[in-house]
C-alpha cells in the first residue's frame, strides 16, 4: 500500500515536471502543485489509455503504474498532465 502511494507520488512529480517543461507558457506552482498535477495527470492518462486500448470507459486504478509498464505509464501520465494543465487554465482564466 505504501509503495503504491510512493510510486504515484514519484510518477506524479516526474510527469508533472515534464508536462510543465513541454507545455507552452508559465504555469507557476511549486513542488507540491507539480506533484498533484502529475498525479491527476497520471489518473487522466491511465483512464485515456484504458479508453483507447479497450474502447471502454473505466477509471484508472493504482495498478496502472506497474513495474513492467513504467515508460508507457510515464508517457500517458505526461499527456494526462498536459490535459490537466489545459483544463486548469480554462478554469482559472479570468473573464
What does this structure look like?
There is one protein chain. With 95 residues, the protein is mainly α. It has one domain (2-92). Helix content is 72%, strand content 0%. It has helices spanning 2-22, 31-54, 70-92. It is globular and about 35 Å long.
Order of helices and strands: HHH
Low-confidence stretches: 62-67
H/I helix tally: 3
Largest sheet: none
Kindly report how far apart the N and C termini lie. Answer: 43 Å
| Overall pLDDT level | 76
Rg, Å, rounded: 13 Å
Structural class by helix and strand composition: mainly alpha
Q: Which percent band covers the strand fraction?
A: under 5%
Q: Any idea how many domains?
A: 1
Principal-axes geometry comes out as: globular
Count of individual beta strands: 0
* Fraction of residues in H or I helices: over 70%
Short description:
The chain has 95 residues and is mainly α. It has helices spanning 2-22, 31-54, 70-92.
Features:
95 residues; 3 helices
Write the layout of secondary structure elements.
Elements: H1 2-22, H2 31-54, H3 70-92
